[in-house]
Design brief:
The chain is α/β, with parallel strands linked by helices. It folds into two domains: 91 residues, Beta Barrel (Elongation Factor Tu (Ef-tu), domain 3), CATH 2.40.30; 141 residues, Rossmann fold, CATH 3.40.50. 19% of the residues lie in helices and 35% in strands. The chain has six helices and 15 strands. Strands 10-9-8-7-11-12-15 form a seven-stranded mixed β-sheet, sandwiched between helices. The chain has a six-stranded antiparallel β-barrel with strand order 1-2-5-4-3-6. The protein has a two-stranded antiparallel ribbon with strand order 13-14. Keywords: 2Fe-2S, Electron transport, FAD, Flavoprotein, Iron, Iron-sulfur, Metal-binding, Transport. It comes from Jonquetella anthropi DSM 22815. Belongs to the PyrK family.
Length: 252
């Protein structure tokens, strides 16, 4: 059950330009969290009412790790936190990835790699992880990911680092029969992934993205359309079987 907690920052590392990995101590959450779930963090300024949803990238004992990008006032405040800082957060929120039914391949768009790293910790290494980044400034982040998952293959929109193109191209030419695909990233990436390979892969699990409000299902701000009806991402998702999503109705 999603609850409010006080977490204690134990370490924070810059892993790229405006990109951070934070290790937080909160035993109940660290021991309950599952791959695909997230936390909603208060930056500590009462004028900032919305909590920041951040992906959990792993756990260890009483600690969990979350990664985030500095994109506004709230996350800028978080970059100033020092070890020992206590803060309010809510979690673990949302549903989780299921154990893959076959050998698994991961597809990640930038920070969408967080729940996939957690899935790797729980389910074991992927056959391959395809990571997509927009440009060469993400190279430190890509190195950080590769240090966690040696099976990572990097794609870059501009071709400055890794292979030129989109991470979904990594599946071209692969025999996907009997394999599972776990993916997280921008919704257009996930839609392209499903439209290209959804008919081949029976177990394709996707973690959708949408701006959230309360994180507890009360505000209905993160509703998405499935083929069976509308669902709240923070409660019923964010992970769904790709074949369940109404991709034509999903706001991309």
């Amino acid at each position: 059950m999603t609850k409010d907690w006080i977490g204690t920052l134990r370490a924070q590392e810059q892993i790229g330009p405006d990109l951070y990995a934070a290790v937080v101590e909160c035993a109940p959450v660290a021991r309950q969290a599952q791959p695909g779930q997230f936390v909603l963090v208060s930056p500590g300024d009462r004028s900032l009412r919305l909590l920041r949803p951040l992906g959990i990238s792993g756990t260890s004992g009483d600690m969990f790790e979350m990664i985030y990008r500095k994109v506004g006032r709230g996350t800028e405040l978080m970059t100033r936190w020092q070890p020992g800082t206590e803060f309010l957060f809510r979690g673990p929120a949302g549903g989780a990835f299921s154990r893959p039914t076959g050998p698994a391949i991961a597809v990640a768009g930038t920070l969408g790699v967080a729940p996939l790293l957690f899935a790797r910790q729980v389910f074991g290494p992927f056959e391959k992880m395809f990571l997509g980044v927009p440009n060469g400034s993400w190279e430190p982040f890509a190195r950080w990911v590769a240090g966690r998952a040696g099976e990572t293959e990097l794609y870059c929109d501009t071709g400055e680092i890794g292979l030129k193109g989109f991470c979904t191209q990594g599946l071209d030419g692969l025999d996907l029969s009997g394999r599972s695909v776990l993916a997280c990233g921008p919704n257009p990436m996930l839609a392209a992934l499903y439209r290209r390979w959804g008919g081949t892969v029976s177990d394709m699990q996707v973690s959708l993205e949408k701006r959230m409000g309360c994180g507890m299902g009360g505000c209905f701000g993160c509703v998405v359309s499935l083929k069976t009806g509308r669902r709240r991402l923070c409660i019923d998702g964010p992970v769904f079987q790709a074949k369940e999503v109404d991709w034509d109705e999903l706001h991309l």
